[in-house]
Amino acid sequence: MSGTSVLSPAEGRVCAIERGASQKISIFLSLWDNHVNRSPIAGRVERVLHTPGRHLPALFGRAGRRNENNWISIRGEQFEVGVRQIAGTVARRILCDCREGDRLEQGQRLGEILFGSRVELNLPGHLEILVRMGQRVEAGKTVVAVHPELVEG
User: pTM score > 0.90 for this model?
Assistant: First the structure.
């Protein structure tokens, strides 16, 4: 099922879900969560882009656009996803272990955000989101979305 499922890139609590033609799952990482981020799918890193910015509280949606962040685009066999590592008020450092052109396995470490932060997972609209608001997810373990036409059985 690895080619049809998308794993959570972070440990924390789902704090926002946006459904539509393009979808987004936002995960808030508290100070007590593990801040290692993992690849939600197997694929090739198409783009890594660091954007400097502010350090607003990461729980709020506007943090994704205004705070310092790191965008990682990963192209799998069936679709492409984006992972945005977002620094928060306390988190002042984003570590990215991957570079453009790297091949990642599903669940492989791709980086870390030090202390409280937020991770956004951008997905194509045809994927079925399985998580709900407030749900706790584990990086590299919790299935957050699936490609409904490719699920076996």
Answer: yes
